[in-house]
Amino acid sequence: MKFMIIVKATPESEAGKMPSEQLLTDMGKFNEELVKAGVMLAGEGLHPSSRGARVQFSGNKRTVVDGPFAETKELIAGFWLIQVKSKEEAIEWVKRCPNPMDCDTDIEIRQVLEDDDFGAEFTPELREQERRLREQM
């Protein structure tokens, strides 16, 4: 099972405040543990939303909105993508993580959809197309 581990933004991260050397060291050690355990697939920090954009969809219309975005608690400051056996294992890994911010913050755990989650609508032809695309990545 794959899980996206989402580090929620804070006012400080949205202001562009970079982590301390100590936090970078602690996170580096945690990332090393994830890699050595063979569960980490990816992980990165993100720039503040002021450097981003959103594309809003309404029917066939597309509207681009430049950041920053108002609701900090709904924004993402970084992520990990891990592969573990269960949600409980993902939770245990996150509980071992150093606090990624210098203040109170939340980390959200979301399971990644897999082929079988889509049901019959994900036909054998679509599954094969997806497999071919993943091989090209």
TrEMBL record:
It holds the Pfam family YCII. It comes from the Bacteria. Residues 1-102 form the YCII-related domain. Belongs to the YciI family. This is YciI family protein.
